[in-house]
Amino acid sequence: MKQTDKDILKDVAELRRMPYSVPEGYFDTFRREMKKPQTQVVSLWSRIMPYASVAAVFIFLVSAGTFILERTTDTRDFTQEDYILFSENFSLNTIYQVHEETQLADASLADEDIIEYLIYTGVSAEEIEYSK
Predict the structure, then answer these.
(1) Which residues lie closer than 8 Å to 102 by C-beta, 6 or more apart?
(2) Assigned domain for 2 exists
(3) pTM of this prediction?
(4) Of 5, 72, 112, 126, which has fewest CB within 10 angstroms of its CB?
Protein backbone atom coordinates (compact mmCIF):
# COMPACT_ATOMS: atom_id res chain seq x y z
CA MET A 1 0.00 0.00 0.00
CA LYS A 2 1.36 3.36 -1.00
CA GLN A 3 1.44 6.18 1.56
CA THR A 4 0.72 9.68 0.28
CA ASP A 5 1.14 12.83 2.32
CA LYS A 6 -1.19 14.85 0.17
CA ASP A 7 -3.65 17.15 1.94
CA ILE A 8 -7.02 16.89 0.23
CA LEU A 9 -8.07 20.37 1.44
CA LYS A 10 -5.12 21.98 -0.37
CA ASP A 11 -5.95 20.30 -3.66
CA VAL A 12 -9.71 20.97 -3.87
CA ALA A 13 -10.77 24.61 -3.48
CA GLU A 14 -14.45 23.82 -2.85
CA LEU A 15 -13.59 21.95 0.34
CA ARG A 16 -11.79 24.99 1.77
CA ARG A 17 -14.83 27.20 1.37
CA MET A 18 -17.02 27.59 4.54
CA PRO A 19 -20.46 26.10 3.73
CA TYR A 20 -22.30 27.85 6.59
CA SER A 21 -22.94 31.54 7.01
CA VAL A 22 -24.67 33.76 9.56
CA PRO A 23 -27.22 36.32 8.37
CA GLU A 24 -26.23 39.99 8.56
CA GLY A 25 -26.97 41.58 11.97
CA TYR A 26 -27.80 38.27 13.60
CA PHE A 27 -25.59 38.76 16.65
CA ASP A 28 -26.78 42.38 17.18
CA THR A 29 -30.40 41.22 17.23
CA PHE A 30 -29.47 38.29 19.41
CA ARG A 31 -27.75 40.57 21.94
CA ARG A 32 -30.79 42.89 22.10
CA GLU A 33 -33.18 39.98 22.59
CA MET A 34 -31.06 38.58 25.41
CA LYS A 35 -31.14 41.90 27.28
CA LYS A 36 -34.97 42.01 27.30
CA PRO A 37 -36.53 40.70 30.50
CA GLN A 38 -38.36 37.48 29.86
CA THR A 39 -41.88 37.53 31.27
CA GLN A 40 -43.56 34.21 31.57
CA VAL A 41 -47.28 33.84 32.07
CA VAL A 42 -47.91 31.17 34.69
CA SER A 43 -51.40 29.79 34.78
CA LEU A 44 -53.10 28.53 37.88
CA TRP A 45 -53.09 24.95 36.59
CA SER A 46 -49.33 24.97 35.96
CA ARG A 47 -48.80 26.00 39.61
CA ILE A 48 -51.22 23.39 40.99
CA MET A 49 -50.20 20.52 38.69
CA PRO A 50 -47.24 19.21 40.80
CA TYR A 51 -49.41 19.06 43.92
CA ALA A 52 -52.28 17.45 42.03
CA SER A 53 -49.99 14.77 40.62
CA VAL A 54 -48.58 13.97 44.08
CA ALA A 55 -52.13 13.73 45.44
CA ALA A 56 -53.17 11.45 42.57
CA VAL A 57 -50.23 9.12 43.20
CA PHE A 58 -51.01 9.06 46.92
CA ILE A 59 -54.68 8.22 46.29
CA PHE A 60 -53.67 5.49 43.85
CA LEU A 61 -51.24 3.92 46.33
CA VAL A 62 -53.76 4.00 49.18
CA SER A 63 -56.48 2.51 46.96
CA ALA A 64 -54.19 -0.22 45.64
CA GLY A 65 -52.98 -1.06 49.15
CA THR A 66 -56.53 -1.23 50.49
CA PHE A 67 -57.59 -3.45 47.60
CA ILE A 68 -54.68 -5.83 48.14
CA LEU A 69 -55.24 -5.98 51.90
CA GLU A 70 -58.93 -6.73 51.47
CA ARG A 71 -58.14 -9.55 49.05
CA THR A 72 -55.37 -11.14 51.13
CA THR A 73 -56.67 -10.93 54.71
CA ASP A 74 -59.28 -13.22 56.20
CA THR A 75 -61.88 -11.04 57.89
CA ARG A 76 -64.39 -13.70 58.87
CA ASP A 77 -65.23 -14.14 62.55
CA PHE A 78 -64.39 -17.20 64.58
CA THR A 79 -66.98 -19.92 64.34
CA GLN A 80 -67.86 -22.18 67.24
CA GLU A 81 -65.58 -24.83 65.79
CA ASP A 82 -62.70 -22.36 65.75
CA TYR A 83 -63.26 -21.57 69.44
CA ILE A 84 -63.16 -25.27 70.26
CA LEU A 85 -60.08 -25.79 68.10
CA PHE A 86 -58.19 -22.89 69.65
CA SER A 87 -59.58 -23.35 73.17
CA GLU A 88 -56.11 -24.00 74.57
CA ASN A 89 -55.20 -20.39 73.75
CA PHE A 90 -58.15 -18.92 75.67
CA SER A 91 -58.85 -18.86 79.34
CA LEU A 92 -62.15 -20.36 80.49
CA ASN A 93 -63.53 -16.94 81.39
CA THR A 94 -62.95 -15.72 77.84
CA ILE A 95 -64.68 -18.76 76.35
CA TYR A 96 -67.70 -18.36 78.64
CA GLN A 97 -67.97 -14.66 77.80
CA VAL A 98 -67.88 -15.39 74.08
CA HIS A 99 -70.41 -18.21 74.36
CA GLU A 100 -72.78 -16.04 76.37
CA GLU A 101 -72.82 -13.59 73.49
CA THR A 102 -73.49 -16.30 70.90
CA GLN A 103 -76.03 -18.19 73.02
CA LEU A 104 -73.97 -21.38 72.85
CA ALA A 105 -75.15 -22.42 76.32
CA ASP A 106 -78.54 -23.35 74.84
CA ALA A 107 -77.03 -25.82 72.36
CA SER A 108 -78.52 -28.76 74.31
CA LEU A 109 -75.32 -30.77 74.63
CA ALA A 110 -75.36 -33.98 76.56
CA ASP A 111 -73.65 -34.00 79.95
CA GLU A 112 -71.44 -36.88 78.87
CA ASP A 113 -70.16 -34.88 75.90
CA ILE A 114 -69.29 -31.97 78.13
CA ILE A 115 -67.50 -34.21 80.63
CA GLU A 116 -65.53 -35.92 77.85
CA TYR A 117 -64.54 -32.55 76.39
CA LEU A 118 -63.38 -31.25 79.76
CA ILE A 119 -61.35 -34.41 80.40
CA TYR A 120 -59.87 -34.23 76.86
CA THR A 121 -58.78 -30.60 77.25
CA GLY A 122 -57.32 -31.22 80.69
CA VAL A 123 -59.56 -28.86 82.64
CA SER A 124 -59.18 -29.45 86.33
CA ALA A 125 -61.99 -29.44 88.89
CA GLU A 126 -60.50 -26.30 90.46
CA GLU A 127 -60.85 -24.41 87.18
CA ILE A 128 -64.46 -25.52 86.86
CA GLU A 129 -65.17 -24.39 90.41
CA TYR A 130 -63.36 -21.07 89.76
CA SER A 131 -65.46 -20.33 86.68
CA LYS A 132 -68.78 -20.48 88.59
Answers:
(1) 80
(2) no
(3) 0.33
(4) 5
